[in-house]
């Protein structure tokens, strides 16, 4: 990923590629919200570059990530213990960012009822 817009586009594409993912705009046109089974796993700001993505995160890992990366802060307007906001300025390596998206999705999937998880995973 080379530009901020390309990075944001890649984040959106990765979120949409998740099985059962749905894109929604409950907070207006400025934020794309990605849900699985009606539960949020990512919020992507669509304003000026570089933009950001907020992702669900294990609380212990969230603290570690915040200590390691200046671009990762407690979730903006979200539960600060369970959500991180990542500025898409390129300072967080792309592979790590994609892994954080996977982890957020997996955390939400793990909380779904077993039957609903089975429907989504086929």
Automatic annotation (TrEMBL):
UniProt entry tagged with the keyword Disulfide bond: no
Top-level taxon of the source organism: Bacteria
Coiled coil: none
Cross-referenced InterPro entries: YjbR, YjbR-like_sf, YjbR/MT2646/Rv2570-like
GO terms assigned for molecular function: DNA binding
Pfam families cross-referenced by the UniProt entry: YjbR
Keyword Ribosomal protein: no
Keywords per UniProt: DNA-binding
SUPFAM superfamilies from the UniProt entry: YjbR-like
Name under which the protein is recorded: MmcQ/YjbR family DNA-binding protein
Lineage: Bacteria, Bacillati, Actinomycetota, Actinomycetes, Streptosporangiales
């Amino acid at each position: 990923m080379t530009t901020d817009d390309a990075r944001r586009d890649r984040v959106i594409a990765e979120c949409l590629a998740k099985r059962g993912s749905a894109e929604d705009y409950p907070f207006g046109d400025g934020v794309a919200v990605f849900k699985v089974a009606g539960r949020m796993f990512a919020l992507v700001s669509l304003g000026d570059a570089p933009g950001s993505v907020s992702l669900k995160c294990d609380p212990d890992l969230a603290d570690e990530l915040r200590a390691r990366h200046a671009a990762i802060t407690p979730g903006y307007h979200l539960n600060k213990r369970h959500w991180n906001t990542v500025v898409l300025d390129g300072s967080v390596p792309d592979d790590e960012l994609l892994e954080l998206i996977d982890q957020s999705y997996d955390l939400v999937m793990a909380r779904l009822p077993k039957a609903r998880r089975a429907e989504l995973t086929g």
